[in-house]
Amino acid sequence: MSLWWLADVQVPKRVGTLSLQDLRRKVALTYDHAWIASAQGFALSEDLPLQTGLMLPAERDTAVGAVDDARPDQWGERVIRLLERPARLSLLEYLYFAGDDRFGALGVSLHPDTYVAAPTAAMPTFDGLADMHQAVQRVMAGEAVSEQQRRLLQPGVSMGGARPKSLMHIDGASWVVKFSEGGELDSPLIEHASMQLARRCGIHTADTLALPLPQGHALAVKRFDREGVRRLHVLSSHVALRAAGEAMGYPELAQLIRRLGHPDQVRAQQQELFRRMVFNMLIDNTDDHEKNHALVRGADGFYALSPAFDVLPAAQGLGYQQMRVGASGHESSIANALSQARAFGLTDAQAQQTVAEIVSQVAEWKVVFQGLNVRDSDIDLLAQYLDGAHLREQGASLNR
């Protein structure tokens, strides 16, 4: 298969050749000489330097470097298995069937010299929301879907994560539409409210819309890998940190920003990341793994944090974050967050002031959630965690 650069979708540029290696358990990349020599050519990630030869991932069941972000995640693989039913389902097939609307600016073609994406239906509009929801429910139940339902699900198979989702055009822009997996909480509406609360904390978030359904809501998240018709190259923090040989942690990501970001924006970007880390701790968002953070490549070749996304309480009270926080590892504590403040370009006093600002805003979470019509029963359940002893102690610790 061939790999393509689609930033200018009118003139796709061939990047190289993808191949299966190591008993078909790894996807490797070989850059084309023309891509290496081109003024547009660049290293797709730090572990894919612009050089000739076959480049392999270290781990099995993954694609090399930035190519790994172009393949589907758990939900997308599930939909492909149900809808496409190909004779073989290696990582290459998953990459191909992700189609043309995949995340980021890379594309995959079966043709060596022409970009021809896997055929998919046109992206639906808001009018198709109810049918899309029904199609999602059928996939979750392992039931067959109609051709119409297939067309509603196909465009969104490359969007990451395990939660059910698809793509939709709203007011001429592309949005990811996420659905609840069931359960007692209206998670999509809670996520919308959490994103609004994050904005009050000075965090740059993706635009969201809560879309009413007969029961509960869906959540629309505006794509940050698109600027009009232009596609943007995006690296998940998982890929970026792995490429740099770094541990999966917030301080490590802050230092990676120092190297990959524009010099004039590094300090602001690092402080933004610190805000996100502290906010995630204070709202019990313990699903803040490295695939829920991303870096977007600008036209100048520098990277910047994407808008925040996938931010909501886990409602589990686990007391640790998915990414390393500080000197005490993954522990969810203000003391741990402050322990390596200088890695985020902050003095101790600045870090404490930032935490105090976020604590004061998060204290008003019930008002924000009620104003967005989150159900009283959901607020009562969340209060066990957001107002629980552990997080309450974190706020109080600032005054000690």
Short structural description:
With 400 residues, this protein is α+β, with helices and mostly antiparallel strands.
Average pLDDT works out at 92
Q: Report Rg.
A: 21 Å
Give the helix/strand class: alpha+beta
The multimeric state of the shown protein is single chain
The stretches of 5 or more residues where confidence is low (pLDDT under 50) are none
Number of helices: 14
Measured distance between first and last alpha carbons: 60 Å
Count of structural domains: 3
CATH architectural name of the largest domain: Orthogonal Bundle
Task: Provide the β-strand percentage band.
Answer: 15-25%
Order of helices and strands: EEEHEEHHEHHEEHEEEEEHHHEEHHHHH
| Biggest β-sheet strands, sense, barrel | 6 strands, mixed
Question: What is the global morphology?
Answer: globular
The total strand number stands at 15
The level 1 CATH classification of the largest domain is Mainly Alpha
- Helix amount: 25-40%
What's the CATH topology label of the largest domain? Phosphatidylinositol 3-kinase Catalytic Subunit, Chain A, Domain 5
Give structural attributes.
400 residues; alpha+beta; Phosphorylase Kinase, domain 1; Phosphatidylinositol 3-kinase Catalytic Subunit, Chain A, Domain 5; 3 domains; 14 helices
